[in-house]
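Hey, can you fold this one?
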Amino acid sequence: MIKLRLLSKSANSLRHSATVIFLHGSGDTGPGIREWVHEILERELEFPHIKMLYPTAPLQSYTPIEGELSTVWFDRPIAIHIPENRKVMEKAYDILRKLINNEIKDGIPVNRIIVGGFSMGGALALHAGFHVNRHLAGIIAYACFINNDSVIYETLHKESGSKFPELLMFHGSDDPVIPLAWSEHCFKNLCKLGVKGQFKIIPEVEHDLEKHALEDIEQWISKKLLPLQTSDRKKLD
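Sure. Predicted structure:
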């Protein structure tokens, strides 16, 4: 059984009424990406009523580094045209379901949970909202892509006419790891299948987090997950 190491951050001791799950990229950890965000913003990414959750992926074999062990959500080659390994993805979905269900059991409605991530974490976030659970509040995908034959496209096609989580995507214009064109291609395909959202290109940025993008994410989260009124908060207690 996969055991996830979790790192959460709440702005205060008050009962939180919403959750953001943010997934790191390949080879990183939850504490690692939290610290990276802190270094860029020179402060925590935090909200009085929102729990920030930074899980760490399991250690497993990773093809791009010749099968060596790494903290990754799933194994894959970094190529958009290679078929998606759906058997491998099922293990990642189990992780997503556990993370989301833990928050629901803690009293957080699914429509007050946002899943986001960087690089591989961003790709898994897309799977979270458009394949695993389309009732989430929103999806943040930063510097990532999904394969051309992704199960996501099949799911969206089957659920045509349904409402999907709003999407916020970012990509550096000079990304040498994942070409900007891959991410743009994915966003356009998602929109054709009914996803609503924004795609933002970060000028002169490579495969990195960037301050203005993080500030945009902060504002977007604040608008998507407004504080609850007193009567609504009591329902969560």
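The mean pLDDT is 92. Let me know if you want another pass with a different chain boundary.
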